[in-house]
Amino acid sequence: MKTLLQYFLFSSISLGAMAQQSDKIKITERDYSNPEVEMADKFREDGKIYVVLAVILLILSGMFTYLFLLDKKIKQLEELNK
């Protein structure tokens, strides 16, 4: 489990470093009050935004569960080989 947490920590740090290397785009006042995001507004009106969030959470929880169980199995195999 410790190695799993280390992996996510290091990968998030590296993603943050890669994001900072991209070309900078100036943020204007219009960007903060952008009323033109029609897709998100439509999803919120219809209540579908919760379906999208539920699917994303389901996929992520499945991936984390799989990685946790895989880590447990690997530890058991390592203990057998000692």
Structure characterization notes:
The chain is mainly α and 82 residues long. It has one domain.
List the helices and strands and how they pair.
Elements: H1 2-20, H2 29-32, H3 38-46, H4 49-81
Judging from the principal axes of the Cα atoms, what is the shape?
A: elongated
Helix content: over 70%
> Which class do the helix and strand fractions yield?
mainly alpha
Give the number of domains.
1
N/C terminus separation: 19 Å
How many DSSP E strands? 0
Major sheet: none
Number of helices: 4
Rg result: 20 Å
What's the order of the H and E elements? HHHH
Unreliable residue runs: none
Compute the average pLDDT.
80
Concise summary:
This protein is an all-alpha fold and 82 residues long. The protein has helices spanning 2-20, 29-32, 38-46, 49-81. It has one domain (2-18, 38-81).
Give keywords.
82 residues; elongated; 0% strand; mainly alpha; 4 helices
